[in-house]
């Protein structure tokens, strides 16, 4: 079992975050038509594969259906519907470490990031 799965190191790619931050700030600010950024391969493959293996299917939980003119998605507001590892990833995305990374990236203080409602498929 890997050091990530044994919780011997962070789920967040801390070294990668430190390395990409300077150039990512520039990419974010210069992106068109508005500031934004995409990180390909941000997480280790094993993290992504574990989350995918735990992720509930369309008929596995009581999803909230959104079918509008601007969106078609399923959402989940109950984190207990997610696997334990997936919850840990979501909690990590709400951590002060990750929020500080986002603050540095965008150049402003974040208020509250609502990642736990990101259960879309």
- List how many beta strands DSSP finds: 2
Q: How do the strands line up in the largest sheet?
A: 1-2
Helix proportion of residues, in percent? 25-40%
Number of domains: 1
| Average pLDDT taken over every residue | 86
Strand content: 5-15%
Poorly predicted regions: 112-121
Instruction: State the distance separating the first and last CA atoms.
Output: 28 Å
Task: Describe this protein's structure.
With 121 residues, this protein is mostly helical. The chain has one domain. 40% of the residues lie in helices and 7% in strands. The chain contains four helices and two strands, in the order ααββαα. It has helices spanning 14-30, 45-54, 84-93, 96-106; strands spanning 64-67, 72-75. A two-stranded antiparallel sheet has the order 1-2. α1 (14-30) runs parallel beside α4. It is globular. Residues 112-121 have low confidence and may be disordered.
Give the topology, please.
Layout: H1 14-30, H2 45-54, E1 64-67, E2 72-75, H3 84-93, H4 96-106
Antiparallel strand pairs: 1-2
Helix pairs in contact: 1-4, 2-3
Output the keywords:
121 residues; mainly alpha; two-stranded antiparallel sheet; 40% helix; globular; disordered C terminus
Condensed summary:
The chain is mainly alpha-helical. The chain is 40% helix and 7% strand.
